[in-house]
UniProtKB/TrEMBL annotation:
<feature type="compositionally biased region" description="Low complexity">
    <location>
        <begin position="31"/>
        <end position="46"/>
    </location>
</feature>
<protein>
    <recommendedName>
        <fullName>Sulfotransferase</fullName>
        <ecNumber>2.8.2.-</ecNumber>
    </recommendedName>
</protein>
<feature type="binding site">
    <location>
        <position position="147"/>
    </location>
    <ligand>
        <name>3'-phosphoadenylyl sulfate</name>
    </ligand>
</feature>
<feature type="signal peptide">
    <location>
        <begin position="1"/>
        <end position="22"/>
    </location>
</feature>
<comment type="similarity">
    <text>Belongs to the sulfotransferase 1 family.</text>
</comment>
<feature type="region of interest" description="Disordered">
    <location>
        <begin position="30"/>
        <end position="49"/>
    </location>
</feature>
<keyword id="KW-0808">Transferase</keyword>
<dbReference type="Pfam" id="PF00685">
    <property type="entry name" value="Sulfotransfer_1"/>
</dbReference>
<dbReference type="InterPro" id="IPR027417">
    <property type="entry name" value="P-loop_NTPase"/>
</dbReference>
<dbReference type="GO" id="GO:0008467">
    <property type="term" value="F:[heparan sulfate]-glucosamine 3-sulfotransferase activity"/>
</dbReference>
<feature type="binding site">
    <location>
        <begin position="270"/>
        <end position="274"/>
    </location>
    <ligand>
        <name>3'-phosphoadenylyl sulfate</name>
    </ligand>
</feature>
<feature type="active site" description="For sulfotransferase activity">
    <location>
        <position position="64"/>
    </location>
</feature>
<keyword id="KW-0325">Glycoprotein</keyword>
<feature type="disulfide bond">
    <location>
        <begin position="256"/>
        <end position="265"/>
    </location>
</feature>
<keyword id="KW-0732">Signal</keyword>
<dbReference type="InterPro" id="IPR000863">
    <property type="entry name" value="Sulfotransferase_dom"/>
</dbReference>
<feature type="binding site">
    <location>
        <position position="255"/>
    </location>
    <ligand>
        <name>3'-phosphoadenylyl sulfate</name>
    </ligand>
</feature>
């Protein structure tokens, strides 16, 4: 009698396991899209339909332009999955040598029809990257988020300063690095990273402009939703991100994200107070960028209200 009961229990347990596996597979392979990408991330490769796929879109820069905010905001879309960490595949020779299988392995699992997005701001200014990206997929969509180049430079310096202070390393003031005998030093690396037209020119040797969507990073800070709507359109995604996905956090001084009852602000490395720079030096910087900015505006066919 006892054996019969035990056997019956065992059969029941087996049937239940089988049923839950079937249900999971049905859900993974089903035609209806998942609700929110953050909650739909499959954790196991045992799902038949889920795979790690190469990115269909890449946020290529610019460094300190708002690349993390853009990635996190795109991730609100149910048809988007993002690589959480910066991959640095196309710009770091050691990674590139590992090949596409390695790159793919850095990507999140996605369902068929979902778009994989990665961001590595270092791609924009690295000369070898456009051709490498083309070799991977000439149809890949590129997102470039730009910001007032003078503000970007100060933000860039602030990040480097922060890293040096944390590691108890010596540092120079921004003015020391930026000015030589009272004039802007064109050799300063952070200044060069703000010469958007130079870097974009290299991308345009390889990709048509229609394949590069320029996001206004200053507008994204002020009011993220309109920039996200434009990005959805560029990526051929159905409009799913709504103004309700954002709320202004007065403590942080920035918009934070809301999705399925969860809220999320970017970490404290985003939106930190900028290192000081005299208004005189800042004005010199603005004057210096006037011509490069104009060239950039001509390239992208639109202008931005930068200093
Ligand atoms: P600051 O720290 O200079 O303010 P990146 O992610 O490319 O490093 O860019 C960082 C910048 O993203 C920040 O620069 C910040 O201004 C900007 N940003 C845009 N939207 C933001 C948001 N919602 N929360 C925090 N920072 C945001």
């Amino acid at each position: 009698m006892l054996w019969t009961v035990l056997l019956a229990l065992l059969v029941l347990l087996l049937l239940q396991t089988q049923l839950s596996v079937c249900l999971r597979e049905l859900r993974a392979g089903g035609s209806s899209p998942p609700t929110f990408s953050s909650s739909s991330s499959p954790s196991s490769s045992s799902y038949n339909a889920t795979q790690q796929r190469l990115p269909g879109a890449i946020i290529i820069g610019v460094r300190k332009g708002g690349t993390r905010a853009l990635l996190e905001m795109l991730n609100l879309h149910p048809d988007v999955e993002v690589a959480k960490a910066e991959v640095h595949y196309f710009n770091v020779e050691e990674h590139y040598r590992r090949g596409l299988a390695w790159y793919r392995a850095q990507m999140p699992f996605t369902l068929p029809g979902q778009l994989t997005v990665e961001k590595t701001p270092g791609y924009f200014a690295a000369p070898q990257v456009p051709a490498h990206v083309w070799d991977m997929n000439p149809a890949v969509r590129l997102l470039l988020i730009v910001r007032d180049p003078a503000e970007r430079l100060v933000s860039d310096y602030t990040q480097v300063l922060h890293n040096r202070l944390t590691r108890h390393k010596p540092y120079q003031t921004l003015e020391d690095l930026l000015l030589r005998k009272g004039r802007i030093d064109p050799g300063y690396k952070a200044l060069q990273r703000s010469l958007y037209h130079q870097h974009l020119a290299r991308w345009l040797e390889v990709f048509p402009l229609e394949q590069i969507h320029v996001v206004d990073g200053d507008a994204l800070i002020r009011d993220p939703f309109p920039e996200l709507r434009k990005a959805e359109r560029f990526l051929d995604l159905p409009p799913r991100i709504s103004p309700d996905n954002f709320y202004y956090n007065t403590t942080k001084g920035f918009y934070c994200l809301l999705s399925a009852g969860h809220d999320k602000c970017l970490d404290e490395s985003k939106g930190r107070p900028h290192a000081p720079l005299s208004s005189q030096a800042f004005k010199k910087l603005c004057r210096y960028f006037r011509k490069p900015n104009k060239l950039f505006f001509e390239m992208v066919g639109r202008s931005f209200s930068w200093c």
